[in-house]
């Protein structure tokens, strides 16, 4: 029956394979290749081996080295501050919403989800106004007379606030769906055994939503390493480069107005990619093993 | 889909029932109040910026500067919106909104076509190396996207797409996430359905259109909603790809506004622009709320 070459699958799968090759596969390989070259986006890349990496990682006198270290440090600060909150708060919301006697669930869920639909640039404008020294809440409600985006630790607090505000909804909904999938019998029999709220949470809810937890933890962390919009809009990297994250340096070097150094930026991108890859794998490995 | 998820959970070993006497649980009421308190405080914090942003767009500059933090304006004015819409030279926000609308709509339509056709291929057709191909692409797509950012720009440049909508519409179609979801969903549809249609002489296109498409509508709607909002709110890529003010989508435009409306000297205009930029996704959410929440079950399907 199947002797004839069947072209139908190629029609169904082929177009996407081409898209994938052009917009993911090719640029990924080219990005890795470019990291070993001297390149400024216009010229042909010139192979320089590990030179970019050596400069970035070890050349104390080079601005690339300083920028990379500073960018990576700030990116890590962002990840460490934002990820725990982006996991714990949505989980608490989902659990609180699961409470049988709580009314108005869909309204509450919508209110918490809506900021996730607001773009970083629009959200940032609103929060900047709210925390404007003269005009917003920071001065009038909290009585603070510092400019938040221009001073630490306020700049970080502001960036974290807008991140949490926009990011809690997505994870919350994943947790809600997962928790509502847990069989009610489990809870009922646990309740009959006298298990309290906390016990039910640790013994039933948490183990039951293990996979969504691992999934959101890994994805949220990987996403946080790519942070770019919040610091760009809120602080533009300041004060004194303290919120200048790695993605901002990568974009500046590759596409900036001055001399663009795409090879160096590519090497930084590969290093950031490796950090993300290693940490994701580690998270997955550790959590999966502990939970098993 | 939600049934599938539920079934999956029901397969878990159940906790042994001891047949204990039902005791009154004193924690229930306390936990109810704690839950309420927590949720209400959170809702207030979450909604205030949205309300404040919207109402500020109806305040006069003098009120913003003089009256401190008030949630609602003393006097509602519309001048800010009039002046935003009139400023077509430095901040053509209507233009930006139309650009965003075109980009997000085209992208969404193409996403639906590509993922349904591709998902059909990977789920309902038999060909050699099908699963190997699928999982290889899926594996590669997990590689952090930051690595392909700079070369992607080079490719867009080579295609002549810098400063054009295509730069935003096409590359996003290559992703594997939605295809994964669609394939998962399609795998849940009984094979007998298309096999009997096949026996009756229907070809793949026929089966795809008349049998599979109607059945996968829920997952397609969800993917469409997320594609639209994702495309509408994208920030990094448009900031890189667009230098021409007239061509950019509204997210990139708002970055310029911080300078154009002078360091918060024209706050009403700034907020009005932000409000205009969020209206479409908010409206979409209001109309399609149940699908946004349904999504969710589809998302959690990933945990497999």
Automatic annotation (TrEMBL), chain A:
Family annotation (InterPro entries): ABC_transporter_permease, MetI-like, MetI-like_sf
GO biological process, one term: transmembrane transport
Membrane topology note: Multi-pass membrane protein
Superkingdom of the source species: Bacteria
SUPFAM superfamilies reported in the protein's UniProt record: MetI-like
Protein location: Cell membrane
Residues annotated as domain ABC transmembrane type-1: 72-283
Keywords: Cell membrane, Membrane, Transmembrane, Transmembrane helix, Transport
Entry's transmembrane regions: 12-33, 76-98, 110-130, 154-174, 209-228, 261-286
Keyword Transmembrane helix attributed: yes
UniProt GO cellular component terms: plasma membrane
Family: Belongs to the binding-protein-dependent transport system permease family.
PANTHER family hit by this protein: ABC TRANSPORTER PERMEASE PROTEIN, INNER MEMBRANE ABC TRANSPORTER PERMEASE PROTEIN YCJO
UniProt name for this protein: ABC transporter permease
TrEMBL record, chain B:
Family: Belongs to the binding-protein-dependent transport system permease family.
Transmembrane segments: 33-54, 96-120, 132-153, 165-186, 207-229, 269-288
PANTHER family linked: ABC TRANSPORTER PERMEASE PROTEIN MG189-RELATED, ABC TRANSPORTER PERMEASE PROTEIN MG189-RELATED-RELATED
Protein name (Swiss-Prot/TrEMBL): N-acetyl-D-glucosamine ABC transporter permease
GO cellular component, one term: plasma membrane
ABC transmembrane type-1 domain boundaries: 97-288
Record has Lipid biosynthesis as a keyword: no
Taxonomic path: Bacteria, Bacillati, Bacillota, Bacilli, Bacillales
InterPro entries named among the record's database cross-references: MetI-like (IPR000515), MetI-like_sf (IPR035906)
Example GO BP: transmembrane transport
Keywords, ordered alphabetically: Cell membrane, Membrane, Transmembrane, Transmembrane helix, Transport
UniProt-annotated stretches for the region Disordered: 1-23
Species of the source: Paenibacillus graminis
């Amino acid at each position: 029956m199947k002797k004839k070459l069947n072209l139908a699958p190629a029609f169904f799968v082929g177009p996407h394979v081409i898209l994938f090759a052009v917009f993911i596969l090719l640029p990924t390989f080219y990005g890795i290749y470019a990291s070993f070259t001297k390149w400024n986006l216009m010229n042909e890349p010139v192979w320089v081996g590990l030179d970019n990496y050596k400069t970035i990682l070890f050349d104390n006198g080079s601005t690339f080295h300083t920028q990379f270290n500073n960018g990576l440090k700030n990116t890590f600060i962002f990840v460490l501050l934002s990820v725990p909150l982006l996991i714990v708060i949505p989980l608490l919301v989902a659990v609180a919403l699961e409470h049988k006697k709580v009314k108005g669930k869909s309204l509450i869920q919508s209110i918490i989800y809506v900021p996730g639909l607001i773009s970083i640039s629009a959200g940032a404008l609103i929060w900047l106004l709210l925390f404007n020294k003269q005009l917003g809440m920071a001065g009038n409600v909290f009585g603070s007379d510092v400019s938040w985006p221009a001073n630490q630790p306020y700049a970080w607090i502001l960036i974290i606030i807008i991140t949490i505000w926009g990011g809690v909804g997505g994870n919350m909904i994943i947790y809600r769906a997962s928790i509502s999938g847990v069989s009610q019998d489990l809870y009922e029999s646990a309740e009959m055994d006298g298990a309290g709220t906390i016990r039910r949470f640790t013994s039933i809810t948490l183990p039951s939503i293990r996979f969504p937890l691992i999934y959101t933890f890994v994805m949220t962390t990987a996403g946080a390493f790519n942070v770019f919009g919040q610091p760009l809009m809120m602080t533009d990297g300041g004060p004194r480069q303290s919120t200048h994250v790695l993605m901002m340096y990568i974009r500046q070097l590759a596409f900036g107005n001055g001399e663009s150094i795409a090879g160096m930026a590519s090497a930084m991108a590969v290093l950031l990619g490796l950090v993300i890859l290693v940490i994701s794998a580690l998270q997955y490995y550790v959590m999966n093993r502990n939970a098993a | 889909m939600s049934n599938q998820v539920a079934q999956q959970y029901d397969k878990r070993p159940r906790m042994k029932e001891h047949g204990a006497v039902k005791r009154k649980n004193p924690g229930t009421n306390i936990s109810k109040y704690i839950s309420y308190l927590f949720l209400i405080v959170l809702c207030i914090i979450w909604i205030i910026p949205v309300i404040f942003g919207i109402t500020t767009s109806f305040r006069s500059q003098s009120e913003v500067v003089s009256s401190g933090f008030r949630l609602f304006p003393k006097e509602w004015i519309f001048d800010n919106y009039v002046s935003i819409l009139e400023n077509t030279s430095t901040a053509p926000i209507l233009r930006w909104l139309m650009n965003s609308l075109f980009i997000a709509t085209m992208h969404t339509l193409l996403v639906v076509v590509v993922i349904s056709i591709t998902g059909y291929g990977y789920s309902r057709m038999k060909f050699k190396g099908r699963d190997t191909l699928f999982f290889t692409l899926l594996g590669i797509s997990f590689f952090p996207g930051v690595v392909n950012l700079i070369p992607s720009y080079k490719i867009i440049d080579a295609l002549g797409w810098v400063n054009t909508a295509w730069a935003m519409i096409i590359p996003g179609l290559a992703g594997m996430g939605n295809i994964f979801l669609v394939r998962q969903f399609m795998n849940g549809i009984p094979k007998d359905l298309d096999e009997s249609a096949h026996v009756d002489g229907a070809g793949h296109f026929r089966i795809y259109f008349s049998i599979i498409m109607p059945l996968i509508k829920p997952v397609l709607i969800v993917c469409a909603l997320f594609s639209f909002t994702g495309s509408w709110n994208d920030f990094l890529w448009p900031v890189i790809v667009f230098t021409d003010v007239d061509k950019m989508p509204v997210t990139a435009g708002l970055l310029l506004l911080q300078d154009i409306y002078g360091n918060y000297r024209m706050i009403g205009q700034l907020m009005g622009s932000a409000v205009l930029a969020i209206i479409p996704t908010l409206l979409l959410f209001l109309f399609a709320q149940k699908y946004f929440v349904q999504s969710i079950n589809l998302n959690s399907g990933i945990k497999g």
